[in-house]
Amino acid sequence: MSRNKLDIVLEDLVIESVAAEGKAVAHTAEGQVVFVEFAVPGDVVDVRVTRKKKAFMEGRIVALKKASDQRLEPFCKHFGVCGGCKWQPLPYDIQLAAKQRQVYDQLVRIGHLEVPEFQPILGSDKTVYYRNKLEFTFSDKRWILAGEDPQSLSDTQKLGLGFHVGKFFDKVLDIEKCYLQEEPSNAIRLFIKKYAVDNGLEFYNLRENRGLMRNMFVRTTQDGQVMVIVCFARESEWIPRLLDAVSEAFPEVTSLYYVINSKLNDSMDGVECIHYKGDEAIYETMEGLRFKIGPKSFYQTNAGQAYKLYKVAREFASLTGGEVVYDLYTGTGTIAQFVSAKASKVIGIEYVPEAIADARINAAGNGITNCEFFAGDMKDVLTSAFIQEHGSPDVMIVDPPRAGMHPDVVKVILDAAPERIVYVSCNPASQARDCEMLAQSYRITRVQPVDMFPHTQHVENVCLLEKIA
Question: Nearest-CA neighbor of 433 among 459, 407, 460?
Fold first, then answer.
């Protein structure tokens, strides 16, 4: 171990296993836990400590002394700086095993829940180019890479269009090629950046809230439809010029929008998406059902895995055709409509009004007449009076955001006492907490992890909870 006033370097650590939050685990000679980024079990590394606590340390590799036999060469040149795809050096089977273990740890070791034997995690058929939506941010002061001299860079060379770096809200890594979304995603991003640079359009300054070019989205479907949304900080005569250029260069763009956002944050809440050219929406299909995806619509970002996830939810629901189903956090009503053919009635509730509007349009377009959708905060909409009016649920399907369910919602679910609860979660930690609250009346009878995001630590999980007799 070497030490100076600025840092601590731990030498010759042996990486033992993959841990939570995408890090790997090693121990010092004294037995202290060290969490290390971008490491693979079997690596022997020197690690610079970036955080020191009483029970553990965190650090980054400064020297790879011996590479693990399992280590893969990262396929993306931005690996290690970009905040995404941290598990590129890990073989996919190790990633899946780590995610399955993560779900087990959250439910059993941390949540202290009794669970049956897990079903094997469902891996993604595509491990690159699997996303159907990406957001890119403009910055007039991009992240400066190691080895670059900021003083020698021109103002133009400091411009960036890409992803936020780590925990820095105002630092953007300029992306040359991203492996998350099929073409023409990369080509469109690079074209818009070049057009803006060539024409002197001011890139946004995130700290000072000034500039014109703010951010952009690309959405795609499995059959090749493309939606582009360009966000500007103010009105400008350059907006139609840029959009016309995009439309001419990329005839495959089927839907083109722009946004004027002068707020202090990039949230799309409260801003109008202005339809400029092409279709008003793109459409994804699943088992003959057609789902409208507008500029603000929520749709699972890995469409292929979403189909597997929804099939699990439908299987766990065990519907026979006579059940009343409540689909909480329904989004655009995808799960609600996916299970509707096997239910008597489905009630979908969602916070975002635009999503509910899309859900109603989707249901009508799909000829589904037994789904009703309601917009509002879940804890305010889902009340005893609401349930009395619309019918007691036999089955509840819940798919909340990462934070999980509000305690008031859990209480209403317990009072409603459905026979089965199918809990779909993107965060096993909050899922474990909520299941612990439900454990007074329900037991977990099936668990199915699903990998929606290869090369990341994130995992979806589905739990079936059945009422205790």
Answer: 407
If you average pLDDT over every residue of the chain, what do you get? 93
pLDDT computed for residue 166 by the predictor: 73
200 Cβ neighbours under 8 A, 6+ residues apart: none
Cβ-Cβ contacts under 8 Å for 39 (sequence gap 6 or more): 15, 23, 24, 26, 45, 61
45: Cα within 13 Å, side-chain hemisphere:
27
User: In the structure encoding, which two tokens stand for residue 277, read together?
Assistant: 């050219």
What is the reported pLDDT for 285?
94
21 DSSP assignment: G
Residue 411 CA to residue 196 CA, distance in Å, equals 52
HSE (CB half, 13 Å, CA atoms) of 211?
24
- 426 noted as active-site residue: yes
CA distance between the termini of the chain: 59
Q: What is residue 408's predicted lDDT score, i.e. its pLDDT?
A: 92
For residue 181, CA distances in Å to 52, 189, 224, 335, 347 come to 37, 12, 12, 24, 33
Which residue in 76, 85, 426, 463 is the catalytic one?
Answer: 426
pLDDT at 4: 44
Residue stretches of the chain with pLDDT short of 70: 1-6, 167-168
The closest of 453, 460, 455, 391 to 430, measured between CA atoms, is 460
Predicted pLDDT at 5: 44
